[in-house]
Please model this.
Amino acid sequence: MMTAVISKSAADKAKLIVGGLKRAGIDLVATLPDAWLTDLLETINADQAMTMVRVPVPPAA
Model:
């Protein structure tokens, strides 16, 4: 089922994405720090069924 997400908030979109990940059997997410993914990463981190691994960014050479 396709859900229209045009008028939804970032938090609502994050919940839709996490729901899709869980339906696909994905429960482990590795992420680099990224400001525009804040709502998604907070939603993943708050979900007890999901494991989030934060990958640090190495310093520039």
Observations:
- The two ends are 46 Å apart (CA to CA).
- The chain has two helices and two strands.
- Residues 10-54 form one domain.
- The mean pLDDT is 89.
